[in-house]
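Thanks for the sequence, V.! I ran SpoIIE family protein phosphatase right away. Repeating your input here for the record:
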Amino acid sequence: MGALNSPTPTASWFRLDEASAVGAVRRFAVDLAGAVDLGERKRADLAIIATELASNLVKHADDGTLLVRPIRHDDSVGVEIVSIDSAPGMADLAAMYEDGRSTTGTLGIGLGAVARLADRMEGHSTPGRGSILTVQLWRAAVPPPAWADGLTRPLTGETVSGDCHAVRTIGERRQVMVCDGLGHGPLAAAAAQAAYHLFHTAPDAPPAVVVERLHRGMSHTRGAALTIAEIDSGAGVVRTCGMGNVTATVLTGDARRSMVSMPGIVGHGKAAVREFEHPFGPESLLVMHTDGVSEKWRLTADPGLITRPPLLIAAAILRDAGVRRDDACVLAARIRP
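Predicted structure:
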């Protein structure tokens, strides 16, 4: 599951610090729904969902941001909205889905309406830290929950990101990639686009073989740092191969293990390609991110978050550790959804 065909799809981040931003979110969401041909009824539903989520951020949240993006799973397409804020958070998020519940004296029907209209809705909230909500509308059949997902945010002032993430399943192989095109802006985005395409068209092969293919195929770009990981549930391991400063971490219980990435630039110079293997069980979580995200993030500050869907985890890490002076990308993955 992920963005439509590209690491830099038609997607947009919005800062919800004033009421006028609500209309911009609604218009963009409706236009995107038309672009992926959701149909008139779901376009109308998405307009309501976008308005409610954006209005909630304006009314209740600190540092509220909202992402609207296209999504794809196999042949099915849709639109996803990710709502992120830093405070005040809620002790009982599920109760806020009930009509009539409110923290500000309003009717409190917003999240209840969103939950009824959405094909899938997930949320997590921690008092004092903030809330994250993800909402999906699909054109046809709703796919199963994702085992891996992520977020990409461009440098402040840029319209495209030089970072990207990708997920693929080929046969028994479940592979993910996080890529950081050198620099930022259109040339970095072009390098990330090339990596994305080469990753998705690579043969069924281990991570080291795929990295070597990307190294050869990206020589016409400015190059990138990237890591590819493969989760092998049968063997109970994760295999990784990386070049440059993309961080990959495995969390299992209280243990946190960082994986090695070799120095170099994919697409340029001599390739130092090595594959590493680490234990990875049903309770393990893989987190990968570019250097637009600080390594100081900790999931323990949000009780229960580590058991939630990968996209909620990635959004929380981006909220807490993402930096605005660089493109940023976070991906989370586990054996089962």
